[in-house]
């Protein structure tokens, strides 16, 4: 599919190219009126701006965020890697919001087919639904990781918007969502009924305080995700004032960057979106600069992937079998000989193994293994088991 028809070129008149000390903006392939749409052959990542805010909730102006983020992102120096990145420009705003959704879904679907990771610069977070639909087009069952202070469930009778997109994904048929993980929700923004719904669906939700207490424990959660949606309002207002829904509490800027880096490191993750940045509310570009650094860390993570995933006969992994008193079958754990990362295999019926082949070997931690050796079933194993059964 020719996706160039959906995009408008970017204006780079503000950027000063430098061949001697190249910055990200120097090494990225750009869609400009002079150069045309970039050749995507050999690209690893593609930046997509989406100036769409008709689905925003109390955050008018977030549709102008993509170009403001670019002005800081392109001035950062690349890391120690050979960047193969294209900036496709901004998706043309459709006559209706559903036209914009359609264009984004088509663009992301094509990029996924070509093993190119889309990096979406929103725009409002309802664009997550359009990103999800691209996986539906490809027939892929996925896990979503959301960095968000809320669950964005809304009410089932509401139109799709930035704070109801998740319920639309859950109810959409055919459904290709295997698991949803919320990282950093704040209890006073979430009602008890919503928390109960998450438990009933066997989704994984983690309070802000618990996550900040052990940020390294987030890495396996990211390693299990196919798709990332990052709401800028999850970052505390003093660090990211450019959002109408920002609050005094949230992640610190450096924590947001570390979360983005974990996402980039995940070999399984194939798309990421950063939403709800509002330049009309920003202070001296502070939030745009932070989002740019988050994306920088995401890119850094992508170029430091190890491309490892355990299999029974893989000699690059140590395999540990643990017998629990209440189980007839052993729990099987894998530890990478290269990275020391851990996975565990979850029991499931043979007739569904092909359908869920990417989901019954679950990233975990050394602590999960230690729990098993103490005859305690890891929560992560049990959550995955309930979904598979």
Descriptive overview:
With 389 residues, the protein is α/β, with parallel strands linked by helices. The chain folds into 2 domains: 3-302, Ureohydrolase domain (Arginase, Chain A); 317-388, no CATH class. It has helices spanning 24-27, 65-73, 97-113, 127-137, 165-171, 192-200, 208-213, 219-223, 253-265, 286-302, 366-373, 379-388; strands at residues 7-8, 29-30, 45-49, 85-91, 117-121, 142-147, 177-185, 204-207, 227-231, 271-275, 317-322, 331-336, 342-345, 361-364. Strands 1, 2, 3, 4, 5, 6, 7, 8, 9 and 10 form a 10-stranded mixed beta sheet that branches. It starts with 6 loop residues before the first strand and ends with a helix. The mean pLDDT is 94.
Layout of strands and helices, then pairs:
Layout: E1 7-8, H1 24-27, E2 29-30, E3 45-49, H2 65-73, E4 85-91, H3 97-113, E5 117-121, H4 127-137, E6 142-147, H5 165-171, E7 177-185, H6 192-200, E8 204-207, H7 208-213, H8 219-223, E9 227-231, H9 253-265, E10 271-275, H10 286-302, E11 317-322, E12 331-336, E13 342-345, E14 361-364, H11 366-373, H12 379-388
Parallel strand pairs: 2-4, 3-4, 3-5, 5-10, 6-7, 6-9, 7-8, 9-10
Antiparallel strand pairs: 1-4, 11-12, 12-13, 13-14
Low-confidence stretches: none
Rg to the nearest angstrom? Answer: 21 Å
CATH H level of the largest domain: which superfamily?
Ureohydrolase domain
Instruction: Tally the helices.
Output: 12
CATH top level label of the largest domain: Alpha Beta
CATH topological fold name of the largest domain: Arginase, Chain A
Major beta sheet summary: 10 strands, mixed
Any idea what the CATH architecture of the largest domain is?
A: 3-Layer(aba) Sandwich
Structural class: alpha/beta
Q: Indicate how many domains the architecture comprises.
A: 2
**Mean pLDDT score:** 94
Strand content: 15-25%
The tally of strands reads 14
